[in-house]
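Task: complex structure prediction.
Instruction: return structure tokens for all chains below.
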Amino acid sequence: MFTNQLSLVIWTPIVAGLLVLATGGDQRATLARWIAVAGALAGFLLSVPLYCGFDNLNGGMQFAENLPWIDSFGIRYSLGVDGISMLFVILNSFTTLMVVLAGWEVIQKRVAQYMAAFLIMSGLINGAFAALDAILFYVFFEGMLIPMYLIIGVWGGPRRVYASIKFFLYTLLGSLLMLVALIYLYFQAGKTFDIQAFQAIAKIPLHVQILLFIAFFLSFAVKVPMWPVHTWLPDAHVEAPTGGSMVLAAITLKIGAYGFLRFALPILPDAARELSTIMVVLSLVAVVYIGLVALVQSDMKKLVAYSSISHMGFVTLGLFMFTGSHLNQWAVEGALVQMVSHGFVSAGMFFCIGVMYDRVHSRNIADYGGVANKMPIFAAFMMLFAMANSGLPATSGFAGEFMVIMGAVQVNFWYAALAATTLIFGAAYTLWMYKRVIFGEVANSHVEEMSDVNKREFLVLAVLALAVLGMGLYPQAFVAKMHLAVNDLIAHVAQTKL
Amino acid sequence: MNWADLNLMPALPEIFMIAAVLVILMLDLFISDAKRCITYGLTLLTIAICAGLQVYTYAPVPEHTFSGMFVNDALSALIKLCMYGATAVVLVYTRQYNETRGLFRGEFFTMSLFALLGMNMMVSASHFVSLYMGLELLSLSLYSLIALQRDSVKATEAAMKYFVLGALASGLLLYGISMIYGATGTMELAGVAKAIKSHNANGMLLVFGLVFIVAGLCFKLGTVPFHMWVPDVYQGSPTAVTLMVGAAPKLAAFVFVLRILVQGLDAMVDQWQGMLALVAVLSMAIGNVTAIAQTNLKRMLAYSTISHMGFLLLGLIAGTADGYASALFYAIVYVLMSMVSFGILLGLSRAGFECETLDDLKGLNGRNSWYAFLMLLTMFSMAGIPPLAGFYAKLSVIKAIVDIHLYWLAIVAVMMSLIGAFYYLRVVKNIYFDDAQDSSAIVMRADMKLVLSVNGLALLVLGVMPERLVVLCVEAMKHSLSAI
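Output:
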């Protein structure tokens, strides 16, 4: 549609965010909300041509832009998407729209700043997915910490200060080491920060690869988050406002996994292969152990947060399924489907919890019971998301998990067997929570006073539900787009750099 | 010296400045307190004219004059322009603060100009004597500026500490210079460099001289283990003077170090590299860790300065032209950041109230979201978070270090900046997450508001488009260092 479609997708929300900020204090809150929703909608609509105009038969980067930026450092403003990153740009623009709607009248304090933070973050996240220059990626990757820090800290729950600082420092720890690794690669690749040039470096000794891999690992594993560096996530999720949790779970976690497949795997294939067993073990610990941890949570948000870690364990598992020097295609594609699907499902789950929280002001499972009597429409929607979260066939949650398990069987039966336990644990913690909250007799006077969803909430729930169902019934719409990009990745990883 | 051959052009801005200072000094005696803004205006005008002259006398090829004691090159021109800008901005920021505290006096203006003149000398010196002269002119002006608030016990104590320790450091520096002179037989930087390269100098004497010189330089930069004065001086001085001490003099001190170590003692890079690496690591570690424990914001910023100076040294340690340029870039960005942070403190202070503790910033977002935003930019920039100028400053020095394969140093540096991020985040937390304890309106002069906004947004603009400034730094280094 436009020649600089990606720039538009990145900068439209940011400019809209600045406009929202310019509306000033809360006396013009309504104006701020409408500008925000217009900006988010424009951002989403601008991202749609990325999908429609995407050429499935072209394996390279599409919608590419490449301009000089900081020549003396060898940094370029270089953008482009392949079938993988394109999906996440759209997912992110979509989630931002949902988040703006989710915070509509719930947020009453500093509305303009709240909406602006989400819009600016949305632009930065799009940038991180679209960047083809390592420093440009890093700028977007780190830049998004600032709005997220403020979102958790200003609009969060009682322990927001602790959670926000923990979130920030944890993420920063990893990315700073990655920065050193990127600078090292800059010199190896002939003084350029171009990611494709990094991937094309012909020789890196194994011990160097392993050190670099550790640097990337720390950065992306914190972001995913993988066990044992996951502890910031439950804190951040519990304290963040609903919108913050939605974006965190739906998008920012994906950047970690995306980092693995954009940086760690193709740039350092030999280290990835050497260390794949460790990665698989960490992923399986996340799937099994964190699944058990989720089972005992009494706080709904914490439960979904742990469930996110467990699901993301599936993603990292899928990314490191090696047979010889070849990645397993089923597993990688499954991981990607799981990422997109988890984006919709977790956003839906967190939004449902937010809807209940706005009415009762509690996230404790024990404070609920019999919500279905008072909110039948809501209960139906939440049923769908809960089913998707536990991987029921015909929902998006099933497709990804099934593909990863299929891939894992081909690599090692026991990997697959352990991974498959998630189908039990996932169903157990999600449905048990659902049962305790939604079914039964009306538990107390607070639940008695609950009213069913309003039009705005219905809209958000319906759109998310359509996405979950659509993806479950026809995953091909996504898989077809990513197919060549995944082949490309596998070919890169198969090429040794020793 | 043959007067007929003397070319005064390269020193034209300095000559004009000293004449103007004397005029302002005299004029000020005949002006009543109510009309003090006349000399204030004249001071700003002087700086503006000097900046104009600086551009006018710019020479791409270094010009030496006064028998090789003074040099006008691209590096000095760039730094001087930055210092003019910084001093002018400081004068604008401090006006309101000084007016409410009886510091809006002729002495403040003339001392500031004398300090600026001293800095110009330091930056343009190519001889140990002129370097030392510039340094002393700067130091003495700063001592008296700090003590300007005569009835303040804290300020007097700070001035005394600074004076005694500063004199000691000057002594160390002079002692080191005398040894270098003894070994090489010359005080001229180019001559010293030549003598060392030709291996005619006594190596032992040189190394001893170097140690003393590095100690003296580290004191002036305020790096560990010669950093003790920094927090006390920052906290004890009136905030206006703290800003004066913390802004432009850092640039001058950096070029001072560059002139001596790179232009004079270039051949001894192997020796000073190790010393500076140790100093840099200690500065980053002690600066950042100690800053966490501070409740006084001025003291916290002092420790943050110490850590920033450690980062700046990384660029020098690299010992490459790119490294020097990155350190220069770092110094300029640092000055921009420190000016915003102290500018906000000055703006929040009012008659009878000093804004200087962390708690004083609580709820600033609720009181005035624009100043809160500017402080947010500054804190994240200091922490080195993109897309702010501080990120590129850190990126460029770390790049210089990785270039010479000092990976451990790069890793130490990024870990230290992680520790540093904590206390910057805490400032942001106070501003955004907490409720205001003091809800009185913030009154700021319109000119200050404008300059402060430009200053703060510069961090963001430089963060999005740093290329121009980076190129300037690289070019300045290239033109000036090729002379050696």
